[in-house]
Amino acid sequence: MEAEFNKAFEDISGKLFRNSLNYCATFKLFSCGKTAGKSLEDLVQMNFGDHAFVGGSAISTAQQVVDELSAALNYRGDHGSYPSLDYLESTESKDGHPFYPVFWDLAFLIETDQKSILLIASSSD
User: Fold this and answer.
1) How far apart are the first and last CA of the chain?
2) Which of 25, 77, 99, 102 could join 122 via S-S bond, C-beta 3.0 to 4.6 A?
3) 116 close to 32: Cβ distance less than 8 angstroms
């Protein structure tokens, strides 16, 4: 399932990048295996190395995750940098940190009974 989500994220990123101006958005899920219950700091360092750190965290509801992703996916930029406005205004768009953040970034730890998943995304120029 992780591969399917990451493929969908790649497709969306490509559409946001096409005909954009100085804009690149990246989304990726990182599966942490059977690690439910480990601290967020441990999970981040397991995936990205000892140099990675958590700058802050807060508990989020599922709706907050959806709202944050929606805001990121619908970010319109400014006069000097923006995603593909044709894609953002299309019907297709409406249906639907290892990265360098400039305009927005987000990360969520999603825990299930068996595993933890990190969702990390950001946009840059």
Assistant:
1) 30
2) 99
3) yes
Q: Where along the chain do its domains lie?
A: 2-124
**This model's pTM is above 0.85:** no
* 3-state SS class at 118: strand
pLDDT given for residue 40 in this prediction: 86
Whether the Cβ atoms of residue 119 and residue 22 lie closer than 8 Å to each other: no
Q: Distance between CA 1 and CA 23 in Å, rounded?
A: 28
What is the tens place of the pLDDT at every residue in 38-87?
888 888 888 888 888 888 899 999 999 999 988 998 899 888 888 888 88
Per DSSP, 29 falls in state E
